[in-house]
Amino acid sequence: MLGDPFADLAGPIHRLSMDSAAEPVRFGMLVEDRHCNRLGFCHGGLLATFLDIALGVGAITVGHHDWGGPTIHLSIDYLQGAPKGDWIESRFTLEHGTRSLLFVTGAVVGGAGRIATCSALFKQPRPRPAG
User: Fold this and answer.
1) Which H or E run includes 89?
2) Strands 14-17 and 25-30
3) Do 69 and 121 form a contact (C-beta atoms < 8 A)?
4) Nearest CA to 18 among 46, 52, 53, 57?
5) What are phi and psi of 37, to 5 degrees?
6) Do 23 and 58 touch, CB atoms closer than 8 A?
7) CB 77 within 8 A of CB 116
8) Statement: residue 127 has pLDDT above 70
9) What is the pLDDT of residues 12-27, one digit of tens each?
């Protein structure tokens, strides 16, 4: 688990270490009954939360920051459902970074392939405040 109260409540969302400099971390979670809509698939709002956390933390990890900046934009295309019992994982690429912004693309994948794709824009973290 991440130690983030909201992520722990929504998930649990698990941090998975990878052997890749471009994608050193992925996130995963098991779709439980409480995550599903009335059709039996993971709710789109939860997938959005999962992607926001995964891409944001992934980008600051690649950028070697110890904390993150806020999400400015998150655009998601839902491709198919993730049924109860499915293990889902994030994929992300830090496409570009400027002095003030991080441009990221990513996806959620599950047992049947890609569930959703997205693009995101995050504020580049400033140095952590003292205290």
Assistant:
1) strand 87-97
2) antiparallel
3) no
4) 57
5) -85, -175
6) yes
7) yes
8) no
9) 899 887 777 767 788 9
Contact 56, 2 (CB under 8 A): no
Calculate mean pLDDT across residues 90-96: 92
* pTM of the predicted model as reported, rounded to 2 decimal places: 0.88
Query: How many of the other CB atoms lie within 10 Å of CB of 91?
Result: 17
Q: Dihedral sign for Cα 22, 113, 121, 8, please.
A: negative
**Is-cis flag, bond preceding 12, omega within 30?**
yes
Residue 47: both structure tokens together: 């997938």
Architecture of the domain made up of 5-123? Roll (3.10)
Q: In DSSP terms, which residues pair with 96 in a beta bridge?
A: 103
Instruction: Give the separation between CA 1 and CA 42, rounded to whole angstroms.
Output: 19
Q: What is the pLDDT of residue 117?
A: 98
Pairing, β 87-97 against β 71-78? unpaired
- pLDDT over 90 at 118, yes or no: yes
Q: Within 14-110, where are the H helices?
A: 44-62
